[in-house]
Write a structure and sequence with these properties.
Blueprint lengths: L2 E6 L5 E6 L5 E6 L3 H55 L5
Antiparallel strand pairs: 1-2, 2-3
Length: 93
Amino acid sequence: MPTEKTVEHADGTVERTTTTEGQRVIVERRGGGMGGVIALVIGLLLVAVVGYFLLNMSQNKQIESNAIAGAAESVGEAADNVGEAARSVTPAN
């Protein structure tokens, strides 16, 4: 007949020992759950940092797109100015 002994430690760890005559001793340990809480906090921090970088990268792409659009507009205006200047020149005879 098996004999069970349960010990609860101050840190919240529960240790259960089962002994059967002529058989092995089985020891089960269960933690207090603090490791899970720490892993959850680290996971949430990791998600927050990745989210920050993704949002920042998106804003940088928007700034780059605006700069390219502004440069293209300036080139278009310069071409218009050159066209106007070419039309205003009278041919020399």
